[in-house]
Amino acid sequence: MKFFLDTANVDEIRECLSLGVVDGITTNPSLISKTGRSFDEVAKEICELVDGPVSLEVVSTESIGMIKEARKLVTIAPNVVVKLPTTKEGLKALKVLSNEGIHVNMTLIFQVLQALLAARNGASYVSPFVGRIDDIGGDGMGLISDITAIYEQYGFQTEILVASVRSPKHVVEAALLGADVVTLPPSVLDKLIQHPLTDSGLEKFLADWHKRKERMGM
Known about the structure:
By secondary structure, this protein is α/β, with parallel strands linked by helices. The chain has one domain (about 1-215): Aldolase class I (TIM Barrel, Alpha-Beta Barrel). Helices cover about 55% and strands about 15% of the residues. It has 11 helices and 8 strands. The protein has helices at about 10-15, 30-35, 40-50, 65-75, 90-100, 110-120, 130-135, 140-155, 170-175, 185-195, 195-215; strands at about 1-5, 25, 55, 80-85, 105-110, 125-130, 160, 180-185. The chain has an 8-stranded parallel barrel with strand order 1-2-3-4-5-6-7-8, surrounded by 7 helices. Strand 4, helix 5 (about 90-100) and strand 5 form a beta-alpha-beta unit. Helix 4 crosses helix 5 (about 90-100) and helix 6 (about 110-120) packs parallel to helix 8 (about 140-155). The chain is globular, with a radius of gyration of 20 Å. The model has no long low-confidence stretch (mean pLDDT about 95).
C-alpha cells in the first residue's frame, strides 16, 4: 500500500519525505490557502520536492471550466494529478480528460456507485472519504470493502485512495482490505510510528547502557 501525505505545507512535506515512506501528495484549495502563498508557487514547489503523484484540485463546478483548469494544472509538472469532484459535471470532465491521457483523482466519494462510475470513465484514482462517513454514523471502511470487491470483479485499474483518514486504525483497516493508497495528514503519519512500549523499551535500553558505562568507569 502506498502512502500519500495530505498537506500543502512544504516544511511538513520535507520532514515526512525524510522518513522514506511518502509516495505522493494530495492537496486541495483549503490546504493551499492556509499557506498564505500563491497557488502556482506552492504547487510548483511541491511537485519539485516529490517524485510521485501530486493531486491538485480544480475549483470550477462546471465541466467546461474543470477541463480548462485541468489542462492548465498539468502544465505545472509531469507528476500532477488533477482532482475533480464526483458530480455529474465532474464525470463529464473526467471522460474528456482521461481520453486525453490526463491522470484524474475523483474526490469526495461517499458511495460505491460513485466509485463505479468514476472507474468506468477512466479515473486513475478514486478518493472515498472514510472519516467523514464515520462522522455521520456511517461505515467508511465498509465502503472501501465494497469498492474493492467491485473493482476486483470487473478488473478496473483505478486505484482506491482512502482519504479523510483520522487515525492509525483507518490505515490498518485500509491495508487489510487491500486499498491501493491512503492519504493522511502528517499528524496521523506520526502516530503510525509511535508506540508507548517502543518509548519505554528505548528508555530502558539507554538506562542499562549508562549503568554499564558507570560500572566500567567509562
